[in-house]
Amino acid sequence: MGEQEYPIPARPHRVESLIERSRFITTLAHAPSAADARSFIAEIREEFPDATHNCWAYVAGPPGDSAAIGMSDAGEPHGTAGRPMLDVLIHSGIGEIAAVVSRYYGGTKLGTGGLVKAYGGGVQQALAALPTLQRVVRATIGVTTGYADVDALRRSVAEAEGLVISEEYGEDVLYQVAIPTRELERFTALITDRTAGRARVEPAG
Fold first, then answer.
1. Are residues 20 and 49 in the same domain?
2. pLDDT tens, 127-181?
3. DSSP secondary structure of 58-118
4. Which residue range forms the structural domain that includes residue 190?
């Protein structure tokens, strides 16, 4: 499961709606762990300390995964806020995501069905315009080669969508690079071919 690639929030995103004079502010953010999700929830509570409710839900893992989830009605009637928010997140196809809906009560009660629709709908509305990026699983490896092969090494890293983490220049050149796991085999073949087998590739650490 840890080797999956899937969409995650690219940055925090917020929408607002007004329902029967109640103001609903929905904020989404990236939450790769339960601790990250709870930190984000605490930030929103600090931002809207005077909100009538700050209801929340999160899926801190792959899309639909229930291993690291959480939710809270935050004072709303049981099952009217956190659960509908979580249901929307679980079925969104987006992973590592947290949502907080801050409500300012407008004086008109919405009823159980109205609350479920308002909280779940707020998350749906925010998801519709959420900027995402692809979570890429990378493996960190060390590549040792000669100075004459540095250009070939850097070119191979770029072609394999890798990232250079560190460079050491001594008797030989040692690069630590992070390569997407799906590109590891191709990267190894590229660098071996381009250096005529002079490059040594091994797991870092």
1. yes
2. 999 999 988 888 899 999 999 999 999 999 999 989 999 999 999 999 999 998 8
3. EE-SSTT--TTEEEE-TTSSTTSSHHHHHHHHHTSS--SEEEEEEEE--S---HHHHHHHH
4. 138-203
